[in-house]
Amino acid sequence: MKSGPLGESVSPILAAENVTVHFPLGRRGETLKAVDGVSFTVVRGEIFGLIGESGSGKSTLGRALVCIQRLSGGILRHEELEPFRLPRLALRRHRRRFQMVFQDPHAALNPRQTIGASLREPLDIAGEGTPATRAARVASLLDAVELPASLLRSHPHELSGGQKQRVNIARALALAPALLVCDEIVSALDPSVQAGILNLLVDLQRQFDLSLIFISHDLGVVSHISDRIAVMYLGRLMELGPAEALMAAPLHPYTAALLAAEPGLATAGGPRRRALAGEMPSPVAPPSGCRFRTRCSKADARCAAEPPPWRELAPDHFAACHYAKPPQPLATTMEG
Amino acid sequence: MTPPLLSVAGLGVRLGPVALTRDVTFDIASGERVGLIGESGCGKSITGLALLGLLPPGARREGRALFDGRDLPACDEAAWRRIRGRDIAMVFQEPMTALDPVFTVGEQIAETLRTHRRLSRRVARAQAVEMLDKVGIPAPMQRFSAYPHELSGGMRQRALMAIALCCAPRLLIADEPTTALDVTVQAQILDLLFDLAERDGTALLLISHDLGVVADLCTRILTMYAGEIVEDAPTEALLRRPRHPYSAGLMRAMPRLAPRKSRLAAIPGRVPQPGAMPEGCRFAPRCDFRTTACALPPPLAPARGHKARCVRQGEIVLGGVV
């Protein structure tokens, strides 16, 4: 069964096995369980979307995946390797191939450095090539993110938000990474600028055969760009599946609620949907059993007693819900 | 025909020699829900502030704004104090900075009531609790004594709405009220805004950069670009067939409407800066449809119905999204 572009016959570039990241809170021995047992793999050349609301742990997970954040448990693999088992210096070298781009394009750049110097810094630190080849590399990076060479001597304040985010992407690409984690990188940008960055990411992925993990709270953005989507809630994955299938027929009630909460152009000023009630509970004391049960209309005693197992309900389409059913041939799977 | 609740004509905001907005003209009827969309720096927030007399020091308002047939004062602070919070109220984007951290949310609601209605402390308190309940805050009696930091983002935004709505204003201006919130909480707040506006007949001016949010709630949408209103249309007409290339561009840039991984239509170039506006049509330098006719400033035309500030609106056919 398992073959094709997303099957196991393709070696994963990244694999998370039961990854947890806990932060001790000091007082009363409490623990904030930001990421609490997450498993998935990312295939080479894939754009993997990770969606969740604030407090879901998606950013902490993203940081852990590029080894900026230590794990509290579980195993992280980059290709055949376990990066957290590497000695310090080897880990530092290894990190070049697993890079991250952050949300705030202004904060990520040194205001006193020119764009050229910013792009050159990672190359200098890594000691790649000769000064002349580094200069050439800087020029080609700027070209790759579709910025004019005239910006090399500019400072960040002279650039627009979209241009700055392009510089940040170029910077992350400087050391030819295999995988890029993009954490809300278009959230701070205006819609027309956001569109340009999304186009660029799709192009870069193809051009450099990159693997991307694209983290966002915006369903529209994630579904546009991703091959597969993982839905995170309170430190755990609720659903994981091919983007089209997940958007067309979500298996988990939380995914369905997220889709229903999208402000609609179809309903234009018209009848109301009923929004999901309540807010996400604290990750310090998550609910027993299913984490989503406190806001789920289908929850019963079983959901409080047993954590739902992670089940494959359709090819490559997983969900953690006691009551999720395999999708029917007709689109009649989500009732009520 | 009844006169509109708010009638704005030729409104502009100047900061020294620089015009931030100009010729902003629109009406809002009683109970109507109108959206104002545009990207950062287009002047949508400053327009909202001008309608509340909250312009920053040094900024000056031009043009006329009639509220319920009466002129909104240009700069008379005492007159504004009687209007603000009672006739026209505002909800801001960032609920943490809009609330005072050293007073409980209940005290902040009661303060507004006591200022405008001269109620006793006891009555104001009772009404504040009622208001907290009305905006969907659970356990309102206990929440009256909660400080802003003790509430979640969604609850703070509800508290802010309780303050804005406690004197039953006839016009509520909401500036990006859901931008800082998660989608599920955003949906709750949009539902609440809709219910409150419907039930009390409050008119709404919803300012946002998100066409989805505005289309969800409003029956009419104003599109703003580089300090000017460039399109004024019923929501459905705008989504079906926009008449200004900028509105059409905003729609085509929306990823949720495009086929997966397809190229999105980013609008080339940058928004012009105040003080360095192109002569003629301000969108022309970024517009695919520009001709020599665009060298003159186009009017917002026709006078009624679906208006656009584009001389070619009769000739070009732009694609909508529904």
Explain how this protein is built:
Chain A has ten helices and eleven strands. The radius of gyration of chain A is 21 Å and the shape is globular. Helix content of chain A is 30%, strand content 21%. With 336 residues, chain A is α/β, with parallel strands linked by helices. The two termini of chain A are 33 Å apart. Chain A has helices at 58-65, 88-95, 115-126, 131-144, 161-173, 191-208, 219-225, 243-248, 253-261, 301-305; strands spanning 12-24, 31-43, 47-51, 73-78, 98-101, 179-183, 211-216, 228-233, 236-242, 311-314, 317-319. Chain A folds into two domains: 10-97 and 178-262 and 279-336, 3-Layer(aba) Sandwich (Rossmann fold); 107-174, no CATH class. Chain B folds into two domains: 6-218, Rossmann fold, CATH 3.40.50.300; 225-308, no CATH class. Chain B is 31% helix and 21% strand. Chain B is built from eleven helices and eleven strands. Chain B is globular. By secondary structure, chain B is α/β, with parallel strands linked by helices. In chain B, the strands form two sheets. In chain B, strands 6-7-8-3-9-10-11 form a seven-stranded mixed β-sheet, sandwiched between helices. In chain B, strands 2-1-4-5 form a four-stranded antiparallel β-sheet, with helices on one face. The model of chain B has no long low-confidence stretch (mean pLDDT 91). At the A-B interface, helix 6, helix 7 and helix 9 of A face helix 7, helix 8, helix 9, helix 10 and helix 11 of B.
